Each structure stands twice: as structure tokens, then as C-alpha cells.
Amino acid sequence: MNKVLVLLSLAVLMSGCQNFGAKDDPYASMRCWAFRDEASVTREQVEYIRKRSETGDLMCKTLLAGMYENGHGVSQDIPKAKVLYQSLAQESEVAYSFLGRIAESGLDGPPDYVKARQFYQRAANTGNSHNAEAGLARLMEEGKGGAQDLEGALALYLSAMQSCNDDQWKSILRLRARGVTLTAEQEQRMNNVWLGTTTGQLKRRVWVVQDAVSTTFKPGPEGAWVQVKVEYVEGSLEPRLSVVGSSGKDAIDRAVLQGLSDYRFPDEQFQTAEHKPWAGIAVVRIRARR
């Protein structure tokens, strides 16, 4: 099932319409949810989703609409998908993002960028649809369906951006290269997203190293700690690593450095007037094994 559809399904349900199934079956929505990633959906499962949709279950209705849109488990039927999305939009305007996507893609005829803008705008106005913000920003940047507005597109990309691994981050860098100037507040937002992505990925790498080194070594009942300084080097995604807090055992320290050696920054650190290369401390705990 389309990842965007899944995320938008959650947005619909979490924006004030918390209908997770009828009172007679509180787990109905979760059953529909369980079908979302199945490569093939059985006739019985389709019928279950359809019946739950008819009772007003928003999750099941959203998934059914997506099935019609993508031809997943049923024959592709864009008109049916649109009817269901319109029904969902009566409950939460976040669902207009689905309709914007169809209008932009031209699945039911030539792309209608004017209508796509209108739908994306209605969904974006809720403040609960990053996908709608990104879609609207893209059309504003390209001047499709209305006037080109690079500053407006920038603001929407910034709002929709979740990490420096997503398309919104790349879009902002593209606009910046075109000469669009960021305010100090917008630059801080970029820095915060870069830092959040960097530290999140580093933490996950530390967990992997902890498990691997703990399996290999026996540091004693108290365990051991290794503190590693991780520094960003201008022009490189490869960090400079150095032990600043030793475990007291060279072999453990070397194993930790080796384990972290393949960590890479997600992107170059965002440059600002007050830019300083980032540095942080990764604390690796080597746990005693029983």
C-alpha cells in the first residue's frame, strides 16, 4: 500500500475524527490497517474493508479509496476513489490532500493544477498535512495552477520538512541556490532539522555498536563506557572520531571506534553567517553479559 496513503490515513484519523471502528467492533480499523502492506488482498478482505467503510469507519474507508486509486486488490476506479475521498473530506479537510494528488497526477484526465492547488491549500490550512504543504509548495515553485511564488514555496517546504533526508530539504537547498534568501528564523529551522536528523541517526548507530561490542567483550559486572567525540569536517560527510572517555581497555576503545567508523552525516551541515562545525559526544555503554 502506498506509504503516502498510509501517512495520510493516520492524519485523517488524528485530526479530530477519531473513529477507530464501530462500537460493536473496536478493532475493526486495526484489521483494515493490517491489510495495508499485503502484496495481494483476498476477496474476503476487500469485502470486509468495504463493509466497514460503509459503516463509517474512517480508516477502512481511506484504505478502500486508496485501493481504488492504485488498483490494489480491486480494479482501478478513480471515480470511486474520488467519491470516497470527498466523503472523507466532509469529516476532515486533511483528506483534500488525496484529491489534490489525483488532480495533479492526471489519473482521471489531463492534470488540473488549479484544482490541485485548491485541494492542497484546503488540506494545508488544517495544519495537519505535511504532504499537502509539500504538494502546494511544489506547484507554487513551478508556477503551475497559479502564479509562481518562491518565497511562499520556501515557507511551505520548511513547514513540511521532517528531516534532511526528505524531498523538502532538497527543495529548500534548490530554492536557496536560485537566490531565495532565508530569514534568521528559517535558517535556525534548517539547523534544527539537520541536528535532529544527525543525532537521531547517530543514536541508532550507537545502539548497534553497543550490542556488537557487548557481545564480543566481557567488561565485568559494572560494564564499561566509551565516550567518542564526533566532529563534522567541512566538505565531508565522514566524521572525525576520537576517544575522549576511555573504557580503560584499548581493545574495547578500538572496537567502538571501528564500529562507528562507517557512520556518515546525512548531509552537509547547513551554512549560516554564524556557522560553526558541529561536534557532539557519543556515549557507548558496553554492558556486562551474564
Give a verbal description of the structure.
With 290 residues, this protein is mainly alpha-helical. The chain has 2 domains: 3-183, Alpha Horseshoe (Serine Threonine Protein Phosphatase 5, Tetratricopeptide repeat), CATH 1.25.40; 185-286, Fusion Protein Consisting Of Minor Coat Protein, Glycine Rich Linker, Tola, And A His Tag, Chain: A, Domain 2 (2-Layer Sandwich). It contains 12 helices and 3 strands. Strands 2-1-3 form a 3-stranded antiparallel sheet, covered by helices on one side. Helix 2 (28-34) packs parallel to helix 4 (58-70), helix 6 (96-105) runs antiparallel to helix 7 and helix 11 crosses helix 12.
Number of domains: 2
Question: What overall form do the CA principal axes indicate?
Answer: flat
Mean pLDDT: 89
Rg over alpha carbons: 24 Å
Q: What percentage of amino acids are in beta strands?
A: 5-15%
Low-confidence stretches: 1-8, 10-23
Which percent bin holds the helix content? 40-55%
**Main beta-sheet annotation:** 3 strands, antiparallel
H/E series, N to C? Answer: HHHHHHHHHHHEEHE
Number of helices: 12
Layout: helices, strands, pairs:
Blueprint: H1 3-14, H2 28-34, H3 43-54, H4 58-70, H5 78-91, H6 96-105, H7 113-124, H8 130-142, H9 150-160, H10 167-177, H11 184-216, E1 224-231, E2 240-245, H12 250-260, E3 279-286
Helix pairs in contact: 1-4, 2-4, 3-4, 4-5, 5-6, 6-7, 7-8, 8-9, 9-10, 11-12
